[in-house]
Amino acid sequence: MNDLYCVYDALAEEYGPPFPAKNDAVASRKAKQMLQGYDLVGSPELKLFQVGSLDVSSGTLSGIIPREVILSQNPELDS
């Protein structure tokens, strides 16, 4: 099972493409890598949300009410 995450852009007022990650820490790292050059931590414009999950065995997608994920401020987790 993988959780699905999206970055929400407040200026565009829309969610970006979903991407899978095993947990919030991995999703935080992936989001930072995807958006290199943007300061995501504490950004009022770009926020990370968990939006669902994907059962990789059955291919079943499950949606949830989007839940904001607090981005990691630990640089050791970002490598």
Which class do the helix and strand fractions yield?
mainly beta
User: What is the approximate shape?
Assistant: globular
Reading the helices and strands in chain order gives EEEHEE
Name the helicity range. 10-25%
For the residues shown, what is the average pLDDT? 86
- Count of individual beta strands: 5
Largest sheet: 5 strands, antiparallel
End-to-end C-alpha gap = 23 Å
| Total helical segments | 1
Strand content: 35-45%
Q: Which residues form runs of ≥5 with pLDDT under 50?
A: none
Radius of gyration: 12 Å
How would you describe this protein?
The protein has one helix at 24-34; strands at 2-9, 14-15, 19-21, 46-55, 60-69. The chain is mainly β and 79 residues long. Strands 1, 2, 3, 4 and 5 form a five-stranded antiparallel beta sheet that branches. The model has no long low-confidence stretch (mean pLDDT 86).
What is the structure about, briefly put?
This protein is mainly beta and 79 residues long. 14% of the residues lie in helices and 42% in strands.
